[in-house]
Structures are given as C-alpha cells and as structure tokens.
Amino acid sequence: MASLLREVRSCTACATHLPLGPRPVVQLGAGARILIVGQAPGLKVHRSGIPWDDASGRRLREWMDIAPPVFYDPERVAIIPMAYCYPGRGGGGDLPPRRECADLWLDRLLAQLPDIRLTLLVGQYAQRHFLGGRARPTLTETVMAWRDYAPSMLPLPHPSPRNQPWFSRHAWFGEDVLPALKQAVAAALAEQGLGIGAAEG
To answer: Is 0.85 topped by the overall pTM?
Structure first.
C-alpha cells in the first residue's frame, strides 16, 4: 500500500489541465472500516493537503458524529474522492472531477481496503460511479432512496455551506438520514473496539 500511495501522490497524469498543478489528496489504511468518496479537493484542501479541511469537512464530521482524530485516522476512515487534485473553478463553482484518477487508480486503491463496512457517497459523481444504474435520476431522489443502498452504502448530498437552501427544503434529510448515518458510522467503527470521540463544535 505504501508504494501505491507514493505512486498516487506523485501522479501528474492531468497536470496540464490543473490550474494550480497536481497535488493528489487521498487517505487510506488497510484497516479502514469507512470509505468516504467525494468529488474533488477544493482550493483550501489543495493548499493544506488535508482532505475535507474546510467548512464542508466540519459539517461532514458533525453528520458522522466523529472527532477529527478519528476522521483523520487512515486505519479507521479511508478518503478517496473521484478526483484527487483541485480541478479549478468554473462558472458555477469548482469544475467537475476529471476522469483520469478513477481510470488510473480507483480500483487499485479499493483493492487495498478489504474491511470496509460503510461507503459514504458524497455527491452525484460518487453516486453515479458506485451505484451505476441503481442511482435515481437526481441526487435528491437518490438520497431519498438511501434505504435501498444500506447497509453497505449511504448516498449523501455535499455538505458544502452552498447547499444550505437544499437542507432547508428537505427537512427529511436531517430527520431520517442523519440519525441513520450516525448509527451506521458508530456500528462500523465499533467493530474495531475503538472509541469515536465527539465531533468538533
């Protein structure tokens, strides 16, 4: 695994398409029980090199009800976005994740994670890739159908502050999905016999 991670972190396959150059950001350890698949690092994550090191990450940890030391422990939580480098900005926000990462690395990385119990699919790109034809036509419909993918996978909207209007319009997400998410996260991590701490305030 260490050799593979060195390869991934030194990848320059799409360097010419990246406005700030390549800086692949992934996290994984062979013992991880939870896999988080998001979209691609944002600008702040590109600068720090730490996955989910932004307001979206704070909200995601709150949703999961785990503390940063647990979230950033690769032997508990693996983090493999659909693209590993910051793609740059477009008219409506960050550009979509490029395909090179999934094509070159995803299957090889997933093969290093034999003990995943729960995969969180954050956003439509992860949902389309992992769910394929099982995904509903829209993200909202896919998240509403979360029971169809449990207990091994759980689709989520992106926790970005930009999505606050979505959260306001869909109270069922906080009422139904988040309690199930917290329970699933706790159950997956409990198999390791380790405490999960508390999410940051």
So the answer is: yes
